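Case study 2.
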Amino acid sequence: MALELNGKTIETTDSGYLVNHDDWSEDLARAMAAAEDIGELTERHWDVINYLRSEYFDNRENQPNTRAIIKAMSDEWGEKIKQGDLYALFPLDPSKQGGRIAGLPESRRKGGY
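Prediction:
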């Protein structure tokens, strides 16, 4: 599979994950989100995306599950959030769909919570 952005072809896996994470950009994230019917990325979307990217690139390629994202975003946003709050942002699974839009490789762990 491939995505087209600004006249450039960006290769993806059959699951829609980037083949080369260096191809990722905020514009690409917006295009991927639109293609997955998420719509415009809000500040909260970006908080999750930036958290996932930071965990992967700055923490030994850690790919947090939904429970870890809930804890991190509760701390970030200063309020207790629930699983449904994250699924409202990334309906197909915050850790997997969020990770895909964040330009991370496909997670091989089972389950999201």
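The chain has a mean pLDDT of 93.
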